[in-house]
Amino acid sequence: MTFNPPGFRTVMLLALGFGLKTLSHILERAGDLAPDPGARLFNHLSALVVLIAAGACFVWTLKLMFFGKPRAPKDAQTVPEAVPEPAANPDAASFDPDAALARYLANRTAAGPGDRPASGPGGFGRKGL
User: Fold this and answer.
1) CB 3.0-4.6 Å disulfide test: which of 23, 57, 62, 88 passes with 17?
2) Total count of domains within the chain
3) How far is the CA of 2 from the CAs of 62, 74, 127, in angstroms?
4) In-domain check, residue 109
């Protein structure tokens, strides 16, 4: 059994449990002050149901705090798995940016400026001008 520090869900469950407990107390007080026995019975049974729901919230909170899976601390430095080194690319050392730009311009001018539709992708602004 380990203690998990309470997180957002745990705090919200505690708040809901205390809110339901307060509502149960209000319903029980209304049942005590009701003049009709039927209204008293309804208020007391409603208070009992709400109190059972509050108890369930408290039990669920205890389960999360003491019997849940332990969370990893956020400040712990986890070591990622080793990433394999990329394979050496023989073309990377012999890359010529001027030759790549020349190939690009040759392919670009071979297509011609009128082949692209006016409304096609690329450029900025109005497409029809």
Assistant:
1) 57
2) 1
3) 12, 17, 65
4) no
* 20 in any annotated domain: yes
- The range of the structural domain enclosing residue 40 comes to 8-67
In a domain, 46, yes or no: yes
- Taking only the tens place, the pLDDT of each residue in 60-116 is 998 888 887 666 665 556 666 777 666 666 556 677 888 888 888 888 766 655 555
**Residue pointed to by tokens 């003491």:** 66
The reply to whether 73 falls in a domain is no
pLDDT tens for 116-128 read 555 555 666 665 5
pTM: 0.51
